[in-house]
Amino acid sequence: MQLLDKFEKNPIKPGPGFDVRYIKGFVDVYRLRIGDYRVLYSVDNINKIVRITTVVHRSGAYK
Question: Can you list the residues of the chain whose pLDDT is less than 50?
Fold first, then answer.
């Protein structure tokens, strides 16, 4: 749960243990790598909302 707490506090740069990258060509969209899976999500900083868009195996993440 400590990792989830860190992600909740700062979903853009949660710190060590997370592989988060900004998705170029989109506004406030990020990719979180969890093993062979990718979580694509957007961050609304004004309303403090994280919207998970997709959870997909890496083989289909960027097609």
Answer: none
The candidate with the shortest Cα–Cα distance to 33, out of 62, 8, 10, 5, is 62
Closest CA to 33 of 18, 50, 54: 18
What domains can you pick out in the chain, each with its CATH number? 2-60 (3.30.2310.20)
pTM of structure: 0.79
Query: Which conformational region is residue 4 in: left (phi greater than 0), alpha (psi within -120 to 50 degrees), or beta?
Result: alpha
Spatial distance between the Cα atoms of 21 and 1, rounded to a whole number of angstroms: 22
Residue with tokens 């990792």: 3
